[in-house]
């Protein structure tokens, strides 16, 4: 055949023959071995990874719970420690040091003042009775320099 | 897993095998591989013209199946179309990558299939024709080569080819028509060139 255009019939025949030849082709055996080895590797990795990640997750959860409980307890303790004992102005006396400590033998003066209960709350005194708007009588101990050294609450 | 289960794997539908593969069933994956490896290999081989590249592509395709079996949706496409789609993607990547290198020999030395014992009656001329046809197919633009390989050499339906290549059936038809025309031209010119070479060599001998 010398024509530039191959005959359609010949082309179809050639394609058919090539198809039949190709139909016998199979992937070489070593490819299957390689693919299955890849499967085994991937699943072996997964299998070793799974328990490790389970224990890691369990440990992380346990640690988180422990930390949360610890923090909650610590917070509670701090709240207790920072919370002054409730004072009932009528029954007991509390001395609050608000400035420099009073030195032994230091001459002091006592000034009675009436202050809003909220002021005492700001100083960390929790009053059992009364509201923050109420006024409380306190004794302020003033040093020789005129600076308050302590406040006495209650009588 | 026992032999009975293994035998049953061969009867399962592709979608069941894919589901079991996704669940980590090695036998299902093996059955899938054995059922579809040849089809992927032939496609890759005809598209690249190289056995070793085709082997790599088969591995790549089944590694994707192994990894993403759970993502396969049988409602969207037949498994063969899905596999052809992956094979096509990897073939394209491979061809694009190989284009960056200059080969010592432009043709892969392994392109000819090994001669089977029942091939002895195949005449030299027929083998030459087949070789010319292979070369002509390999020289086609990729989009035409794909349809020739799928529809004419792998017996994939137009619908299946459309699904695998992600285009309309009409596009497959028109590409196939154009591809056959190009192929016919290439075969014609290849044959006339062969005849010319033969004539010249005879003249030299005289």
Give the helices and strands of chain A as they follow along the chain.
Answer: HHEEHEE
Radius of gyration of chain B over all CA atoms, rounded: 20 Å
Return the string of H and E elements of chain B: HHHHHHHHH
* Biggest beta sheet attributes of chain B: none
What is the CATH topology of the largest domain in chain B?
Rna Polymerase Sigma Factor, Chain: A
How would you characterize the largest beta sheet of chain A? 4 strands, antiparallel
How many separate domains of chain B? 2
The average pLDDT score of chain B comes to 82
The CATH first-level class of the largest domain in chain B comes to Mainly Alpha
CATH homologous superfamily title of the largest domain in chain B:
RNA polymerase sigma factor, region 2, helix turn helix motif
Query: What distance lies between the first and last C-alpha atoms of chain A, to the nearest angstrom?
Result: 129 Å
Strand fraction of chain B equals under 5%
Known CATH architecture of the largest domain in chain B: Orthogonal Bundle
Gross morphology of chain A: rod-shaped
Query: Which consecutive residue ranges of chain A, at least 5 long each, have pLDDT under 50?
Result: none
């Amino acid at each position: 055949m010398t024509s530039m255009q191959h005959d359609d019939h010949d082309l179809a025949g050639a394609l058919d023959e090539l198809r039949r030849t190709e139909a016998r082709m199979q992937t070489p055996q070593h490819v299957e071995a390689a693919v299955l080895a890849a499967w085994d590797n991937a699943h072996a990795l997964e299998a070793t990874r799974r328990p490790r990640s389970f224990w890691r997750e369990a440990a992380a959860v346990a640690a988180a719970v422990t930390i949360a409980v610890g923090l909650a307890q610590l917070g509670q303790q701090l709240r207790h420690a920072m919370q002054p004992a409730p004072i009932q102005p009528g029954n007991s006396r509390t001395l609050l040091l608000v400035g420099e400590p009073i030195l032994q033998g230091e001459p002091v003066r006592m000034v009675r003042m009436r202050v809003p209960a909220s002021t005492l709350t700001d100083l960390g005194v929790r009053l059992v009775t009364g509201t923050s708007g109420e006024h409380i009588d306190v004794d302020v101990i003033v040093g020789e320099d005129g600076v308050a050294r302590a406040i006495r609450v209650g009588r | 897993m026992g032999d009975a289960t293994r035998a049953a794997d061969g009867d399962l539908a592709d979608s069941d095998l894919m589901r079991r593969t996704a669940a980590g069933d090695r036998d299902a994956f093996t059955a899938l591989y054995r059922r579809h490896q040849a089809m992927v290999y032939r496609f890759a081989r005809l598209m690249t013209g190289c056995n070793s590249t085709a082997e790599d592509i088969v591995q790549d395709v089944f590694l994707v199946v192994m990894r993403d079996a759970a993502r396969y949706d049988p409602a969207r496409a037949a498994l063969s179309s899905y596999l052809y789609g992956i094979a096509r993607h990897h073939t394209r990547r491979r061809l694009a990558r190989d284009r960056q290198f200059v080969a010592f020999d432009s043709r892969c030395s392994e392109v000819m299939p090994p001669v089977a014992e029942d091939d002895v009656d195949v005449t030299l001329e027929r083998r030459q024709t087949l070789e010319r046809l292979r070369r002509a197919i390999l020289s086609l633009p990729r989009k035409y080569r794909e349809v020739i390989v799928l529809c004419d050499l792998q017996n994939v339906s137009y619908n299946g080819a459309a699904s695998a290549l992600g285009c309309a059936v009409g596009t497959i038809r028109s590409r196939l028509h154009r591809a056959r025309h190009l192929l016919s031209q290439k075969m014609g010119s290849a044959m006339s060139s062969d005849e010319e070479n033969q004539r010249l060599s005879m003249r030299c001998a005289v």
